[in-house]
Amino acid sequence: MPERSLPSTAAQKDRLLTGDRPTGPLHLGHLLGSLQSRVAMQDSHECFLIVADLHTLTTRPERDRIAELPRNVRAVVLDLLSVGIDPEKSTIYLQSGVPAVYDLAILLQMLIPASHLRSLASIAQMAKVAGVDDERMSLGLLGYPVLQAADILMARAQLIPVGGDNLAHVEIAREVAQSFNEMYAEVFPLPEGRASRVPMLPGIGPDGPAASKMSKSAGNTINLGDTADVVASKLRTLGGARLRGFIDALIGNGDDDDGQAKAMHAAHQAGKLSDAAVHDRLITETEALLAPLRERRAAFEADEGLVEEILVDGTIRAREVAYATLQQVREAMGLEPLWKGLIDVAERRALDRKKPY
């Protein structure tokens, strides 16, 4: 295996941070909403990409679910590589392998009211999907945005590309950073959230709310590694609002500058274009996106040990950044001077004991 260098830390580049929970393989919603833009920004930004295994514990803390993480983590990294993420340009790291983030999260918890977290619709939705009611909601799930803030602020990231439902979490990170800077010292840049080009791709299947989001947790996805036959069969289940959502995302490319999606909507609504004909067009467009990814993924998967090497290298890099940030935080808050003061007194006492009469 050829030796690789760690991503550059060029000071002139703004830092970008985003990530994925390894609850299953990445899907078409991730590709259109986030992954394509990550690839496009690798040259203009210093990118940190989290494989956010700690975040899975908020809704999946059971031992058997944790046992699934090695397979899921590997699948996420292979998906990232297949879409064009370059580990020479982007730091891909395992969240739980950076213990300084846990420490930072505890300190940041002191700066955000619990009532603010309880009011977040995204947390309520996560709990609903996981089948967790208010009585059984864990402190970890309620504090999910605080751990996200620790991820963002440990890297002192400026740009945070997220889905529309997570923009409120970036705002919490921004508020926490601002509060910290005002209370202690200017340690953190204020992060800016950037909504995905396709903020929500509907899930596959005829059942449930028509506008429900494609989600690993909901099990209604077209995975990046799905075969062409599986993709086609899933797309042929679309109808109604779901079908319209796919037209907007795949034909309109999220903005529909040339009006293709509008024309297809009009023809479909007028009965000039059948569901089957729309399905055929969507299958063609989706295959154009996914076929090259399958080929690249197979090549990376065949390179034994590559995924593990990338994760270890990236996590070591992330640790360096995180511990440097934590040190600054502890200094600014006065916690490090407290500890150093205790050590100084203890050392002087030990030296005094060794002095002759």
Automatic annotation (TrEMBL):
<dbReference type="InterPro" id="IPR001412">
    <property type="entry name" value="aa-tRNA-synth_I_CS"/>
</dbReference>
<dbReference type="InterPro" id="IPR002305">
    <property type="entry name" value="aa-tRNA-synth_Ic"/>
</dbReference>
<keyword id="KW-0648">Protein biosynthesis</keyword>
<protein>
    <recommendedName>
        <fullName>Tryptophan--tRNA ligase</fullName>
        <ecNumber>6.1.1.2</ecNumber>
    </recommendedName>
</protein>
<keyword id="KW-0030">Aminoacyl-tRNA synthetase</keyword>
<comment type="similarity">
    <text>Belongs to the class-I aminoacyl-tRNA synthetase family.</text>
</comment>
<dbReference type="Pfam" id="PF00579">
    <property type="entry name" value="tRNA-synt_1b"/>
</dbReference>
<feature type="compositionally biased region" description="Polar residues">
    <location>
        <begin position="1"/>
        <end position="11"/>
    </location>
</feature>
<dbReference type="InterPro" id="IPR014729">
    <property type="entry name" value="Rossmann-like_a/b/a_fold"/>
</dbReference>
<dbReference type="InterPro" id="IPR050203">
    <property type="entry name" value="Trp-tRNA_synthetase"/>
</dbReference>
<dbReference type="GO" id="GO:0004830">
    <property type="term" value="F:tryptophan-tRNA ligase activity"/>
</dbReference>
<dbReference type="GO" id="GO:0005737">
    <property type="term" value="C:cytoplasm"/>
</dbReference>
<keyword id="KW-0547">Nucleotide-binding</keyword>
<dbReference type="GO" id="GO:0006436">
    <property type="term" value="P:tryptophanyl-tRNA aminoacylation"/>
</dbReference>
<feature type="region of interest" description="Disordered">
    <location>
        <begin position="1"/>
        <end position="22"/>
    </location>
</feature>
<keyword id="KW-0067">ATP-binding</keyword>
<dbReference type="GO" id="GO:0005524">
    <property type="term" value="F:ATP binding"/>
</dbReference>
<dbReference type="InterPro" id="IPR002306">
    <property type="entry name" value="Trp-tRNA-ligase"/>
</dbReference>
<keyword id="KW-0436">Ligase</keyword>
